[in-house]
């Protein structure tokens, strides 16, 4: 296990062998992992450098060691300050009095480190920030304001967040772009969309304007909510345009996506017309968004009509993504027969399914508990279209097949999975066999696992342990007799069966 002493020993060896590149790499790694160079090691290495006339390395090591000591001392103070603040409510003078007893050298680095440690207590971080601002000899700056803003950008401290931004503005400081991006993503992740839009508007009026991709990402997040707030969508677009930007195809797509998602198809069509007038032609993104919106409202006939008539009306051949959106709409609604009709219609146009579409169809069948249908569909598409299903698709269908006691079918998928170079997914088979299977089933599983490489000893051990847990000791012993010699002699397996001696020799017939 890594420790300061181990790192120190490695550094001494590297220094004595004059492997300076490796020495500085290890020293940097040591610091990053929170380990420290002790005084004795520093003196020994420094003396060696001097003897070898490595003057620049002597200076660099001295500078590193001095900085490390200062950082270590600061860490101790930071820990003490955080302990005082975290230990009680900051409602009286107790915390102030305790903090005043600590000998603190105020610096940007110190303030940032305390704020980082208090990130899970944002209101205490807010009070600490203002307490620091009242101390003589230190003044908050852009760096520390940005640091506290990052900590406060949460639901339970959003009022304090906006208060800090107002305060920043009053003293001439601004959020930097890196801070904006982190906070905006946090707002979007937590579905704080009103705050995300308000922050975007504020930044577009600042010296550090968000980029076009930042605007597009925000519009995507707005459209991804269950009920997109169109007011927020248009606020973003308006602010984007008012600051001198020209609406791009991606921005039009973002607006269009939100409108179709809430069923505002007339307004969406007007956006498309505006987009065309601006020089952008509708494409698969435009049409797939319309199809998605219609499917969301279960207006399947209209959605299908959009796809079927694209080539005739617009000279556009629907691509795989557009078909996938339509088929997924049917699957989500449980309309599997219609989904299959669309699949075959798609294939008639020489558009072949991929692993994503296969995953959509398999999920749809599983949701409707048509497990056997999902299995047959996967084999048919995989065989006819020469596609490789996703590993997650294999796993989900194997679990579903075993859930309805379709062991042979699940085993077929495991074989197919192995031929596709995926790691063997044996875990659900182990629990299934221990509860419902026979030892012949176990032998078959081990033979499948032996394809291309030998089953690990861990797999055998898991099977035996699972059988023991279900009280099938005698059957486990029967299976053991059929296993290869090295498995029967394995120490953990012998221990499991209560003996360090292997069972009587018989010809192994499992996974040989």
TrEMBL record:
PROSITE patterns for this protein: PPR (PS51375)
Pfam families noted in UniProt: PPR, PPR_2
Keywords per UniProt: Repeat
PPR repeat locations: 141-175, 176-210, 248-282, 283-318, 319-353
NCBIfam families: PPR
A Gene Ontology BP annotation from the UniProt entry: RNA splicing
Annotated source species: Trifolium subterraneum (Subterranean clover)
Gene3D superfamilies for the chain: Tetratricopeptide repeat domain
Protein name, as recorded: Pentacotripeptide-repeat region of PRORP domain-containing protein
